[in-house]
Amino acid sequence: MTSSVSLPTEPPRDLRFRRRLRIGTSLVELWRARELVRSMAEREMRARYKQTVLGFAWAVVIPVVYMVVFTVFFRRVANVNTRGVPYALFTYVGLLPWTFFSSSLSLGGTSLLTNLSILNKVYCPREIFPFASVSVAAIDTTVATGVLGVLFAVTTFMPKATIVWVPVLLAVQVAFTLGVVLLFSSIIVYVRDLRHLLPIALQLGLFATPVAYGLEAIPSRWQWLYALLNPLGPVIDGYRRTVLFGQAPDMLLLGLSALTATVLLVAGYAAFKRLETGIADVA
Questions:
Q1: What's the predicted TM-score (pTM) here?
Q2: How many whole angstroms separate alpha carbon 7 and alpha carbon 261?
Q3: Which residues of 102-136 are buried (b: 16+ CB within 10 A; e: fewer)?
């Protein structure tokens, strides 16, 4: 006579592995790996501009081309109120933060996939790869900022004293960018279709963000919702207000943007740390 023994379909509760997420410990580990972030950023920068004729000048070419296109074509079909500021200067101030965000997401979103040879062989905090990509985008944007000085000289338009608000705007911009990059870089490993959708989303985002036009194009009654959904809008508007118009940022809209950026940064980092345990296996 044979007896059937039912086997457990899953391990007992006391043998299950549950990873505890400790943000503080993860940040300390990331800080200790800061030299690795610098080395990875330098490696990525060298690979990006190796054997190119223009080299670092490519960091300037892209935003300048967009500025010329917007100035020549967009200005003719849209009535953009620049408040007396030359349109080329108006749009370039908007292009700088957008270029930083776009480049960070393009490079950082696929950074885990493009570094599989290192990721599967060496243990390190996985977030160093998207952080290194954001650092590369930051260097490119810093180089492109030099054109802004040329535009000020050519147009004889001087930046205003309210430029002191720029570090606050920059903090919101970086927090939002890091949050989006961390979130997408971890999800793309599991959902590869996003890698192909990302360029399309960035092209649409360029026109959904007030780069070639002002924030006042958004109906005032919906601007609070727009600030929550797209923090880059009030940030770009803040740059124009402080650098070009001599005004303080719209604190309500900037506060809503900062709220979204902070929530997204925390949630993006938490999601990244939750998903990183399976990244090597899936990738």
A1: 0.87
A2: 48
A3: bbbbbbbbbbbbebeeebeeeeebbbbbbbbbbbb
HSE at residue 119, side-chain half, CA atoms within 13 A, is: 22
High-pLDDT (> 90) share of the chain, %: 46
| Band of pLDDT at residue 4, cut at 50, 70 and 90 | low
Nearest to 212 by CA among 35, 88, 47, 26: 88
Is residue 109 within 8 A of residue 190, CB to CB? The reply is no
Q: How far apart are CA 188 and CA 180, in angstroms?
A: 12
pLDDT in tens, 58-77: 778 888 998 988 888 877 77
Distance, in Å, from the CA atom of 249 to the CA atom of 165, rounded to the nearest integer, reads 8
Cα separation of 37 and 124, whole Å?
10
The residue behind tokens 């044979």 is: 2
Phi then psi dihedrals of residue 252, to 5 deg: -65, -50
pLDDT at res. 169: 96
Helix 128-155 with 87-109: angle, nearest 10 deg = 170
Place of tokens 């410990």: 25
How many of the other CB atoms lie within 10 Å of CB of 56? Answer: 14
Taking the C-alpha atoms of residue 204 and residue 176, their distance in angstroms, rounded to an integer, is 18
Q: Is 52 left (phi over 0), alpha (psi -120 to 50) or beta?
A: beta
Q: Give the integer Cα–Cα distance in Å for 40 and 58.
A: 20
Residue 281 has pLDDT above 70, yes or no: no
Q: What is the pLDDT of residues 228-248, one digit of tens each?
A: 999 999 999 999 999 999 999
Q: How many Å separate Cα 54 from the centre of its chain? A: 25
Burial class (CB in 10 A: 0-12, 13-18, 19+), 75: middle
